[in-house]
Design a protein that fits this description.
The complex is a heterodimer of chains A (about 110) and B (about 140). Helices cover about 80% and strands about 0% of the residues of chain A. Chain A is built from 5 helices and no strands. Chain A starts with a helix and ends with a helix. With about 140 residues, chain B is mainly α. In chain B, about 75% of the residues lie in helices and about 0% in strands. The longest helix of chain B is centred in the last third of the chain and has 27 residues. Chain B starts with a helix and ends with a helix. Classes of the chains: A mainly alpha (about 110), B mainly alpha (about 140). At the A-B interface, helix 1, helix 2, helix 3, helix 4 and helix 5 of A face helix 2, helix 5 and helix 6 of B.
């Protein structure tokens, strides 16, 4: 896997994560803001989706899919930075397992 | 008095899932998991046929498989949201972790992808990690 492809995977993951957060926030609040957030969510999710489809054309799905787990790693770090969420031992173990798994998959 | 009893019945009826195996919330969660696995397979099939460059995923829209995949994803989302109203969140999230194994399994069985021992080990490690972070992740997602 080239560094460019890896970067695309990470961007695609971040987009789908950001899209989900926009969708969640679109649930509450005034109607106009709701529509804007919904549109933003759809747009950013579409970017992530098409990046993913593009990646799929070049790699085995069994190779690519485990990278979806990075989603969780990004979410954890984002939470610890922006929400001051504590990184418990459990979380470090999980993050470590996911990263080790992805390292193995990327070498297969 | 009877009117009050009636309205009470209505409230409890609303909080309960509909009768029948299809409307069982666990059926719906499982359906959602199968559909999101199927969606990935459809997208892969479509992408192989229609996308020429890595950054031109948009070309996938020329393929019916990609549209089928999008349909499966959307249906999966609705099943998921329905199931989530009745199934405890941590159970649902752990079940969702199964997708990490189901997708490669389906790739092997249905798409004929060859998966070596290194990749299988990696897949299982990722899956284990996803299960470990499932519970704390739920808490974080509520806050976001």
């Amino acid at each position: 896997m080239t560094p460019l492809a890896f970067l695309l995977v990470v961007i695609s993951d971040c987009c789908s994560l950001a899209g989900q957060i926009f969708f969640k926030h679109a649930m509450g609040g005034a109607n106009e803001i709701k529509a804007t957030k919904l549109a933003a969510g759809v747009a950013i999710m579409a970017v992530g989706f098409f990046l993913w489809v593009g990646l799929m054309s070049k790699f085995d799905l069994s190779f690519l899919y485990p990278f979806d787990g990075l989603n969780r790693v990004v979410l954890m770090f984002a939470a610890s930075i922006f929400l001051k969420e504590k990184m418990t031992l459990n979380l470090w173990v999980g993050v470590g397992l996911i990263c080790a798994g992805i390292l193995l998959v990327s070498r297969s | 008095m009877p009117a009050v009893v009636e309205s009470n019945d209505e409230v409890t009826a609303e909080a309960k899932p509909r009768k029948g195996w299809f409307f069982n919330p666990y059926t719906q969660i499982l359906l959602s998991i199968m559909l999101s696995t199927a969606a990935q397979l459809c997208l892969k099939k479509g992408a192989d046929k229609s996308v020429s460059e890595i950054w031109l995923g948009v070309e996938g829209l020329r393929s019916g498989w990609v549209w089928l995949g999008i349909g499966a994803m959307v249906t999966s989302l609705f099943s998921w949201l329905y199931g989530l109203r009745f199934v405890p969140l941590n159970v649902a999230f752990n079940l969702a972790g199964l997708v990490q194994v189901l997708v490669p399994l389906a790739c092997w069985l249905l798409l004929g992808e060859r998966i070596g021992p290194t990749r299988w080990c990696g897949i299982l490690l990722v899956c284990a990690g996803v299960f470990v972070v499932a519970r704390p992740l739920m808490r974080v997602e509520e806050k976001l």
